[in-house]
Amino acid sequence: MRERPRQGRGRVSLFRKVVSTLTVSIAAASAACALLANGGHFSGTLDILAHLAPIYAVVGALALLVAVCVRGRRRGVVAALGAIGVLSGALLIAPEWHRSTGPDAPAGTPGTIKIIQFNTLRSNTDIRRTADWLIAQRPDVVAISEARHDLRDMLRARTGWKTAGSHGTLIIFTPGQYVKMNRPKLPKGSKLTFVNATYASTSGEMEVVTTHLDWPTRPAFRRQPTDLEGVTSRLPGERMLLLGDFNSTPWSHTLQGLDRSLGLIRRDRAVPTFPAQVLGRPWPLPFLPIDHIYAGPGWATVKVERGPWLGSDHYPLIVTLAPVAN
């Protein structure tokens, strides 16, 4: 009759050991990645790890909670690994919350414009709903990545919107035709994809540039940020708008470098837009802010928001701007 309690205690003990071992393994892997990610200043390969900084911080926090329940020497190990994950992840994330997002302006400021950046996904099967939503927003500028030509034709037919880059997968939509298109030349061998055009606005001409960078794991990505700097440096920047799917989070050293070097101000702050779906179903908890909108110092920010799920693996990013008063 006394064997059952002993067996029960044995099973509990085994369960605790398994949980403890898994916790140590996961916390150790997460802490190691977090530490290595802080070396992204010196290595593009290590910078790839920086994109997952929030995961390292969350895993570290969970490890600290589990440490309360762990007995023996492993408690200290789990707690130490958790602390490393939290602190290293926080070091990567902190600059995003300390940087300036530019001047602000109240709603209703004269000359206000609404801008939308959206990767609509080539395999999106809900193009009509995408078009309905975009039209209902009454935007002044829409930059579409992975643009489908059926969506282009639908928007043109229903709204009369004009396009720049209409034959590619990057398209700028605007109510009026662009004034001119001065396309900077790229260095030989560049893999950067972009579209740009100059538009009239009530506050003067504005240059609109849209781009779609490769995944950081691909070799082509390494040169693209530098080539993008070269493009924007040869265009008027005071009222420039730069929109795109950068495939880079704000805690990566690559995007932080662009924030410093472009001469523009990124108006979104840690707005996660990816992933918006998993296995073809909507995913309400995106954790990667990889779509971004920059604007020149001639613009003040009125509002930054994220749009709804529209059949893509990205959520739309919406920024409302107003001209800075002279």
What is CATH's topology name of the largest domain? Deoxyribonuclease I, Chain A
Spatial arrangement of strands, main beta sheet: 3-4-2-1-13-12
Q: Average pLDDT, to the nearest integer? A: 92
List unreliable stretches of 5+ residues.
none
Q: What is the number of helical segments per DSSP (H or I, 4+ residues)?
A: 8
Write the CATH homologous superfamily of the largest domain.
Endonuclease/exonuclease/phosphatase
Classify the secondary structure makeup into a structural class.
Answer: alpha+beta
Find the count of extended strands (DSSP E, 2+ residues): 13
What CATH first level of the largest domain would be assigned?
Alpha Beta
**First and last CA, distance:** 88 Å
What's the structural domain tally? 2
Q: Sheet with the most strands?
A: 6 strands, mixed
N-to-C order of helices and strands: HHHHEHEHEEEEHEHEEEEEE
CATH architecture of the largest domain: 4-Layer Sandwich
How large, in whole angstroms, is the Cα Rg? 24 Å
Tell me the helix content: 25-40%
Report the portion of residues in β strands: 15-25%
Set out the fold topology.
Elements: H1 3-37, H2 44-50, H3 53-69, H4 74-98, E1 113-119, H5 127-137, E2 141-145, H6 149-159, E3 162-164, E4 170-174, E5 194-199, E6 206-212, H7 224-233, E7 241-245, H8 253-261, E8 265-266, E9 277-278, E10 281-282, E11 291-295, E12 299-306, E13 317-323
Parallel strand pairs: 1-2, 6-7
Antiparallel strand pairs: 1-13, 2-4, 3-4, 5-6, 7-11, 8-11, 9-10, 12-13
Helix pairs in contact: 1-2, 1-3, 1-4, 3-4, 5-6
